[in-house]
Amino acid sequence: MLEIDIKRVLPGFSLEVEFSMEREIVAILGPSGCGKTMTLKCIAGLMQPDEGRITLDGKVFFDSERGINLPSQERRVGFVLQNYALFPNMTVYKNVAFGMRHRPDEEIHERIMELMYMMRLSGLEHRYPRQLSAGQQQRVALARSLAFEPEVLLLDEPFSALDTVGRRKLEEELQDIRQFYDGYVLFVTHNLAEAYKLSSKIAVYEAGSILQYGDKQQVVDTPCCRTVAHLTGAGNLMDGLVTDVKRNIVKVWIPGLEQHFRLIKKNGINLCKGQEVTIGIRPEYIRMTDEVTENSFKARVTKAIEEVSVYTYRFSGSNQDNHAFHLEASISKGMAPGLSVGQSCCLYLSPERLFVTPD
């Protein structure tokens, strides 16, 4: 198990995070400047926390109380930087071999040829980084980090310099890596789709802290607060008042829609009658329906965007007391007709898809 419990204070910013992971892929998701890369650097030994502890399967990397801070070369951590950090004056072969320079030549050659094949780099051994595409450079950086068989693999924004096609190919390759690398993989991203596709768990960062950490589906479907909801793309949020709680069934009055909504309580959150809450739903979970029933309502389109496979609609309105609502729905083209601004339709918010937060 990789366990991290660290604090690092800088002028105008502090990082204080605690989490652990098994031999799996974990994504650190958050905006720029929230401490994602700093966390990786502390694990790799490139930056020293002010206090705390980092351990890997019982081996202590860092312990401020005991005065332990292992040098990076003793941690067996592979780190792929955002800019790849390849040596421009070295060939692909020599770049990959760099981390193995203290091993016998025959062993180095065998390992490099194995990685060339695995990373689809065969035939490029004698090229220089400037002669490679961005995707090829990224694969070389990955091969170099894997060459010495690290226990932990850290990836800092691995897709940021790639186009759509290159990003998709590298995503597939990272998934394939799990077939021959069963270590700990921790990668940084600000893209939810990347985090969800590649990881088993997601840690949501904001301003140097972890707001939520857990199974990716749980983080996406049941954000713990408004900030996590926005960071994970679940920005359809409405203020409400709890009017009834029966076991895991909750009824919430939404003033903006002048209507009750029924939802299923998740995450063991404690709610009581009369409590002010926020309810929300992801845009892709909103459905169109033909009739007004429980959890459905009529709404007018204020913006319509046609995308490749979905229509993205924005709805807004307010009642006589100036309580407003704003919703965005992403609906498959095969599930609904195209609507224009000003048209109305009936929307359904499934009780199973709604989430509630106390803030």
Shape: globular
In the sheet with the most strands, the strands line up as: 7-8-9-3-10-11
Count of DSSP H/I helices? 8
- Which CATH architecture of the largest domain would you pick? 3-Layer(aba) Sandwich
The percent of residues in helical segments reads 10-25%
Which runs of at least 5 residues are low in confidence (pLDDT < 50)? none
Q: Span between N and C termini?
A: 33 Å
CATH fold node name of the largest domain? Rossmann fold
The arrangement of helices and strands along the chain is: EEEHEEEEHHHEHEHEEHHEEEEEEEEEE
Could you give the topology of this structure?
Layout: E1 2-10, E2 13-21, E3 25-29, H1 36-44, E4 51-56, E5 59-63, E6 68-69, E7 77-80, H2 92-97, H3 105-118, H4 134-147, E8 152-156, H5 164-177, E9 184-189, H6 192-198, E10 201-206, E11 209-215, H7 216-221, H8 226-231, E12 236-246, E13 249-254, E14 259-264, E15 276-281, E16 287-289, E17 296-306, E18 310-318, E19 324-332, E20 344-348, E21 355-357
Parallel strand pairs: 3-9, 3-10, 7-8, 8-9
Antiparallel strand pairs: 1-2, 1-4, 4-5, 5-6, 10-11, 12-13, 12-15, 13-14, 15-21, 16-20, 17-18, 17-20, 18-19
Task: Describe the overall structure.
The protein is of the alpha+beta class. The protein has two domains: 2-227, Rossmann fold (3-Layer(aba) Sandwich); 235-357, OB fold (Dihydrolipoamide Acetyltransferase, E2P), CATH 2.40.50.100. 21% of the residues lie in helices and 37% in strands. The protein has eight helices and 21 strands. It has helices spanning 36-44, 92-97, 105-118, 134-147, 164-177, 192-198, 216-221, 226-231, and strands at residues 2-10, 13-21, 25-29, 51-56, 59-63, 68-69, 77-80, 152-156, 184-189, 201-206, 209-215, 236-246, 249-254, 259-264, 276-281, 287-289, 296-306, 310-318, 324-332, 344-348, 355-357. The strands form four sheets. It has a six-stranded mixed β-sheet, with helices on both faces. Strands 2-1-4-5-6 form a five-stranded antiparallel β-sheet, covered by helices on one side. Strand 17 and strand 18 (310-318) form a beta hairpin. The longest helix has 14 residues, at 105-118. The radius of gyration is 24 Å and the shape is globular. The protein starts with a strand and ends with a strand. The mean pLDDT is 90.
